[in-house]
């Protein structure tokens, strides 16, 4: 994956910053929902490979420029003109939408999941166009990714401690998943038993917990991005095929209609779904029509965002 020259120079237009921030906002909105990946949104919006390359730019050259007090050169070398508005958009979405999405998931879960199911389903087709030729190797890689993601989303959440070291570890693991399309960082927090704890920390502005989580996330994303970047440079189409497979497998998690099989008590003593199975809608009624309506909106929205992303590259 070659370095994109647009992230190595200061961005001139304020509109460019706004567009990048809006794309970050879309990524942050997706990251709040367990089962939906900000990486998927980055692929849809055409900034995924830019993001990976930008994160990789935090290297020895960047540190050398910082030590030499060449701050402008360091900012350009680290792709900060691209990263800062993107991160600002992500954080704005998380801080502003966490409470709203939590309320919607509690009161209208089928509607929310229907919307995101349509979103991810159509993104599989739009992202699939980035692969130059679907060879047997690419199909096999996509199948491997789909099977892995399918079984991951069948795991039962754990009961874990709220100690700072585990919050740091959760941030490290979640960000590695978050950067992969199809694997939701929020869902990894669910598996680690920390999703509701972190959501409450965001809603109550518990900045100590948030900073510990972000510390783990920063270390995780800087190290993991180098691995992903290497695979993109050496095996671009195979890597994209695996990522598309992960998105296909994630459809298991975001299927709107579910039946709870088992529950468990989390660290706050609250009953939480442990194992759910996907079911078909029980009847054709207004609720089903509303769910299908929002699923279609999500499906169409991806093609609109894909068109927008191509025009704003």
Description:
- With 313 residues, this protein is mostly helical.
- It has one domain (5-311).
- 70% of the residues lie in helices and 5% in strands.
- It contains 14 helices and two strands; from the N terminus they run H-H-H-H-H-H-H-H-H-H-H-H-H-E-E-H.
- It has helices at 14-32, 38-44, 48-56, 60-67, 71-77, 80-107, 109-128, 136-152, 164-178, 185-191, 195-203, 207-234, 236-254, 286-311; strands at 258-265, 271-278.
- It has a two-stranded antiparallel sheet with strand order 1-2.
- A hairpin with a 5-residue loop joins strand 1 and strand 2 (271-278).
- Helix 2 (38-44) packs across helix 7 and helix 7 runs parallel beside helix 14 (286-311).
- The longest helix is centred in the first third of the chain and has 28 residues, at 80-107.
- It is globular, with a radius of gyration of 19 Å.
- The model is unreliable at 5-11 (pLDDT under 50).
Number of strand segments: 2
Q: Based on helices, strands and strand pairing, what is the structural class?
A: mainly alpha
- N/C terminus separation: 17 Å
Mean pLDDT: 79
Secondary-structure element pattern, one letter each: HHHHHHHHHHHHHEEH
In the sheet with the most strands, the strands line up as 1-2
Count of DSSP-assigned helices:
14
> How much helix is in the residues?
55-70%
Largest sheet: 2 strands, antiparallel
Rg measurement, Å:
19 Å
Q: What is the number of independent domains? A: 1
Q: Which spans have pLDDT < 50 for at least 5 consecutive residues?
A: 5-11
Q: Percent of residues in beta strands?
A: 5-15%
